[in-house]
């Protein structure tokens, strides 16, 4: 039995086979266990001669099982290590890489372009009070222009705001004009842009409840509409990277500017995409509205702490999402906020 058992143990191919052998030999009803049970029925003399042999057999088999088990385990580990070896010469798999969102990209580009023109970046809160968002911008309570902004109001009781004023999600970046003027103290020239999120309760293919604007504000002692036109032309040429940008200034109305002008730019269709450039009056071209602007209204200068007898300025507000769509040929505004990496990738915005 001993020699046969040791032979089988040494030939066991794997841990399962070895365990089966162990059960067959040393288990409750194993053959060696059965031998041990026969000791009870032996005479003392018999037991004295046979007992040590059976115990030696059990010890030999036990040791052989343990040795074999260790050998099989280390072989299994070796095999596993060999199988999992990393081949450092293989090219690494390409991991998807994130990128700057087109909206952020455009805001960064505009900040850079305006920095070259001497503009600093100013910011304000997205949860704005009624005074900064409306009243200081020459839209007192019950002003009809307020109705043009589909305003989100904050539930003050629920939000815990301790203020007499209504709080709103800012409907435009224009309140930053007021904040920048007040911060400047009403006695020095200003040149700022204010990029950021704005909110209106409006949603369809061309409107999202949250979108982005860049506000511009210049205050000085001899600022005219000509400065506004030159600044916008220079900015748009740099942004669209072409010299043939033609602007058309149209009289318009905003409560916070006087006079107010809407600025159109010429464009044409190339491969079914709107491409900015040329005059809207050129053959094959049309005008599209790009932004609102004007000379800062005297009421607004006063609200910002500037004396309109001494200071003038111009302001403009441009939709960033709109500019991004034009520059990159994107046609669905909503896709901007879906966070779909495939859409971003399609326009070259992710790895
Ligand atoms: N605030 C205006 C809007 O959201 C844009 C604008 C800004 C117009 C500054 C004139 C001057 O539509």
UniProtKB/TrEMBL annotation:
Main subcellular location of this protein, as a coarse class: cytoplasm
Give the matching NCBIfam families. pheS
Q: Which family does it belong to?
A: Belongs to the class-II aminoacyl-tRNA synthetase family. Phe-tRNA synthetase alpha subunit type 1 subfamily.
Q: What's a BP term from Gene Ontology annotated to this protein? A: phenylalanyl-tRNA aminoacylation
Question: What is the official name of this protein in its record?
Answer: Phenylalanine--tRNA ligase alpha subunit
Organism, scientific name: Novosphingobium umbonatum
Which annotated residues bind Mg(2+)? 258
A GO MF term: magnesium ion binding
Localization per Swiss-Prot or TrEMBL: Cytoplasm
Q: Which reaction equations make up its catalytic activity?
A: tRNA(Phe) + L-phenylalanine + ATP = L-phenylalanyl-tRNA(Phe) + AMP + diphosphate + H(+)
> Which top class of enzyme applies to this chain?
ligase
The keyword ATP-binding is annotated on this UniProt entry: yes
Q: Which UniProt keywords apply?
A: Aminoacyl-tRNA synthetase, ATP-binding, Cytoplasm, Ligase, Magnesium, Metal-binding, Nucleotide-binding, Protein biosynthesis
- A GO term from the CC aspect: cytoplasm
Domain Aminoacyl-transfer RNA synthetases class-II family profile as annotated: residue spans: 104-351
Q: How does it assemble?
A: Tetramer of two alpha and two beta subunits.
Name what cofactor the protein needs.
Answer: Mg(2+)
EC number(s) on file: 6.1.1.20
The cofactor remark states:
Binds 2 magnesium ions per tetramer.
């Amino acid at each position: 039995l001993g020699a046969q058992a040791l032979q089988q143990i040494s030939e066991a191919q794997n841990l399962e086979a070895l365990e089966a052998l162990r059960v067959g030999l040393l288990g409750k009803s194993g053959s060696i266990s059965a031998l041990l049970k026969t000791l009870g029925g032996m005479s003392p003399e018999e037991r004295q001669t046979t007992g040590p042999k059976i115990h030696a057999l059990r010890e030999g088999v036990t040791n052989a099982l343990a040795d074999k088990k260790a050998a099989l385990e280390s072989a299994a580990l070796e095999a596993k290590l060999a199988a999992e070896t990393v081949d450092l010469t293989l090219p690494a798999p390409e991991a998807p890489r994130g990128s700057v969102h087109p909206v952020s990209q455009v805001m960064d580009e505009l900040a850079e372009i305006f920095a070259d023109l001497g503009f600093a970046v100013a910011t304000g809160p997205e949860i704005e009070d009624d005074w900064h968002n409306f009243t200081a911008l020459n839209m007192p309570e019950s002003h009809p222009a307020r109705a043009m902004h589909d305003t989100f109001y904050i539930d003050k009781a629920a939000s815990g705001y301790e203020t007499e004023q209504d709080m709103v999600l800012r409907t435009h970046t224009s309140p930053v004009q007021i904040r920048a003027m007040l911060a400047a103290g009403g006695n020095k020239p200003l040149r700022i842009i204010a990029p950021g999120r704005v909110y209106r309760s409006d949603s369809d293919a061309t409107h999202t409840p949250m979108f982005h604007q860049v506000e511009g504000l210049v205050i000085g002692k001899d600022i005219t509409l000509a400065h506004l036109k030159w600044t916008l032309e220079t900015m748009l040429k740099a942004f669209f990277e072409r010299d043939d940008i033609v602007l058309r200034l149209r009289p318009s109305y905003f409560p916070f500017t006087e006079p107010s002008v809407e600025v159109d730019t010429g464009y044409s269709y190339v491969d079914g995409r709107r491409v900015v450039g040329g005059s809207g009056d050129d053959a094959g071209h049309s005008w599209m509205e790009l932004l609102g602007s004007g000379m800062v209204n005297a009421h607004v200068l006063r609200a910002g702490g500037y004396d309109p007898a001494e200071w003038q300025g111009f302001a403009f507000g441009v939709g960033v999402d709109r500019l991004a769509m034009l520059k990159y040929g994107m046609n669905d505004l909503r896709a901007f906020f879906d966070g779909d990496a495939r859409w971003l990738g399609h326009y070259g915005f992710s790895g």
